[in-house]
Amino acid sequence: MDALALFKIENLTYFYPETEKPALQEINLTVEEGEFLLVTGGSGSGKSSLGRALAGLLPDFYGGKIGGRIFLSGRDIRDTDRRSLAGQVGMVFQDPEKQLVMTGVEAEIAFGLENLGLTQPEMFRRVGEVVSFLGFGPLKQELTANLSGGQKQKLALASVLAMQPGALILDEPTSQLDPVAAEEFFNLVKRLNEELNVTIVLIEQRLERCFHLADRVAVLEDGRIVRSGAAGEVAVWQVKNGFPFVPPVAGLFAHLDFPVVPLTVKEGRRLLQEHFHIRGDAPGAGVGRFRPVRTRREEAAGNPGDKKTGPVAEVKNVWFTYPNGREVLHGVSLKVRAGEFTAVLGENAAGKTTLLKHLAGLLKPGRGKVLVHGKDTGRTSPQEMARTVGYLSQNPNDYLFQDTVAQELNFSLVNLGLSDDGRTDRLLKKLKLARYRQTNPRDLSSGERQRVALASVLAAGPRLLLLDEPTRGLDYRLKSELGGLLRDCAAEGIAVVLVTHDVEFAAEYAERVVILFDGRVACDGTGQAVLAESMFYAPQVGRLFRGTGYGVLTFREAVAKLQERS
Amino acid sequence: MLQQFFYRERGLFLQSLHPGVALFYIGTLLVLTLLFAHPLYLMEILLVTVITVQAAGGLAAWEGYMKPALAMVFVIMLLNPFLAQVGTTVIWHAPEPVPGRLTVTLEAVCYGAAMGMRLLDIISIFCLYNLMVNPDRLLGLFSRFASKSVLVVSLATRLFPVMAATMNNIREVQQLRGVDFKSGSVKERFAKYTAMFNILLVSSLENSLELAEAMHARAFGSGSRSSYRRECLRPRDLLCLGGAFFSLGTAVYVQVSGLGAYTYYPQLDPLVNGAAAVLVLLVVLAGLLLPAGLSWGWMHWPYLKSRI
User: Fold this and answer.
1) By C-alpha distance, which of A540, A559, A479, A550 is closest to A254?
2) In A35, A141, A176, B79, which residue has its Cα 20 to 30 A from B269's Cα atom?
3) CATH class of A5-246
4) Count of CB atoms within 10 A of residue A417's CB?
């Protein structure tokens, strides 16, 4: 056996209890000490199961049938007792809300140490070390409930790190975080890997921020490792074999058959210069030239891609303060037209969700007015609004309580007194849910659950569709399916407004982009105008072409442009 | 608005006490309230509590507590003289047409007032508890003895705001699916709320499995647990503990020796029964005021602050 192999998996096959399809099939994998392994693949591909197996949770916690063996430092993981295993391998999960136990920060960090039965002086030393390494000092007395999402996930990491594991399994640790918090989290992971030689197994489907960090990338499909190797090489292989788990810049150059694939924007720009003589200082191409807030004249002239129809919704100089005194919206004005696909971007607490809830009539403006189909939402109940407005919240589970998918759709129809004129069938077919008609929605995967929630919202035939962070936790395939669906909705004349942190998604699908900052509209225009020249809100391909004057935002545009040049 | 009724960390001296000491101090106040029926002692405890509440910066919160409390006191004072037909000093006879012999006695009025005072004491002590004692630190104190129960309480406390937020989201989603929680018969409304709780329950069950997994991954249940402590006893804790012990001891002595006894019926005892009674009253007062006094010194006297 390789002397440096920390994990060695031999022919691992695993079935969850009461399932006939294996979650993992004949996995063979070696992870060396100090290695950074990125595991990617679609939803249900077995990524998380692999992580659980490495952390010793399969079959210990889940039960089920297992075949093959996993060695940790040369010893079969099933012969290692739980205490010693937890001291060697730590695992951080997706949602910080579902892994924190204690009410206070310091107590949370000590929780695992208490479970290991350590002495008070040893616990105190370890808590102290972790608090100073992660810079938790100012927060150590804080209640966990008062932390932001990013801080909570960092706390989950801290509480695992206190157990001083040699390896960390991170199961989509940033899927619930905003981009800034995600970036910060990955930087921390990188530091752990480089400075402390902690072996990292990162399971991730949001690859723009972590692909370049990995020493090796493994792609899973149907419970099997279909490819594993250096990041660049795996990117090329994926593009050739039709796998989408590649960050856009790497994907672009792999698509163009480049021998060396860049993993970062910096490397990509160098290749652009060398091979296409495209430079970032093209004449007339101002860097970071944000299109300003639209003027009154522009506003009067209508929106980009205006369908020459009256606005479906109009937000007129809206100010809003929550009962706790936090003023969130400061004079926001916005018109949304039929068939328009708008993405609202902005930092955390910029007022995005608050704006969305105003459009839905769930919140009433303190000052100003919101008109939806000419009706003042301030004087209309949410139930009344439900006839014209569809609202998909962040968590599709908030919708699902009926016994079957069909009943879930029917629930909305009955409440609104609508008859099923075949729309249930049409929607189920359109959203690829027809075969789940009689299935309990809670038995479906996360992507499918979201489609059921969306179907039950669309069943009411809304003219304005509002979505809050719909791409959270979705892989590339599911995202593109969702994007396609929403685009179809817009083509049918539905006004689509979504709030998102996902710049890539906004660039690909939204025709109009609004950026909020501190409760004000900081920028409003076509996706092209707003995102292409933006420094921080640009998608990865946009950053690659920023300042070149090409105005390229998406993968397709970039391919077309570069093929033209070559 | 409701915020003022919950504990908030504000870095005050009284909040920095060891939770066990703070609990002992508050327990002492409560025991004395229940031990004494003497109006001067009941008044003394109210005085001490209000001064300490003030030192904990909670007078506004205390006023919030007092509004309903005073209404209750008023009711007690009004009812007691009519219900307790004992006492010898009659101050009012019901007019002739009223059947029976309804009278109001001075003793019954005073007893009602004293009981009202006791109620004010108890409510004020509860207010002080909320201002002074961090429930998490207090819970941590018990984790050595009942770690699993403490963990369950801690988890419930942590998950409560999360569930409240989820509940709000579900309600909004249901409203925008056409559910009107305000309309319909009681049965219909019940069904609407049941659906909402159903979603919350199923989601919570799903989440609890994930939480259990995360706990398992952190070696929970892998053997006997130890308990992490951060609390330490400082001179301030010893001083406050000493003060409370001193007062409690004196009070027990006073009660056993009969110095603090007071009877309302059939006739009121004299309020002050000699110099010794006044002296012990002051002694008890001094011991109980120690935390508030130290708090004042801690704020205004850097030397003292550094020493305690």
Assistant:
1) A559
2) B79
3) alpha beta
4) 8
Token pair, residue A365, equals: 């403006």
pLDDT (tens digit per residue) in A170-205: 999 998 888 888 889 999 999 999 999 999 999 998
Domain residues for the domain of B202 are 145-217
Q: Which residues pair with A521 in a beta bridge?
A: A516
pLDDT of residue A285: 46
Which residues share a beta bridge with B121? Answer: none
C-alpha distance across the termini of chain A, in Å: 49
For chain B, what is the domain count?
A: 2
* Residue B222 covered by a domain: no
Secondary structure class of A376 (helix, strand, coil): strand
In a domain, residue B151? The reply is yes
Contact B177 A460 (CB under 8 A): yes
* CB-CB contact of A526 with A517 (8 Å): no
Q: Does the CB of A145 have a partner CB in chain B at under 8 Å?
A: yes
In the numeric block, the tokens 């399932």 are attached to A19
Render pLDDT for B63-84 as a digit per residue (tens, 0 to 9): 988 988 999 999 988 888 888 7
* Helix, strand, coil percentages, rounded to 5, for chain B: 70, 0, 25
For residue A274, count other CB atoms closer than 10 A to its CB: 9
Return d(Cα B268, Cα B106) in angstroms, integer: 8
**Closest chain A C-alpha to B289 CA, distance in angstroms:** 28
A368 sits in the region (left: phi over 0; alpha: psi -120 to 50; else beta) called: left
Same domain, yes or no, for B117 and B163? no
The residue length of chain A stands at 566
**In contact, A9 and A35? CB cutoff 8 Å:** no
Contact with chain B for residue A409, Cβ under 8 A: no
A307-527 belongs to CATH 3.40.50.300 = yes
Q: With respect to residue B224, please indicate whether it lies within any of the assigned structural domains.
A: no
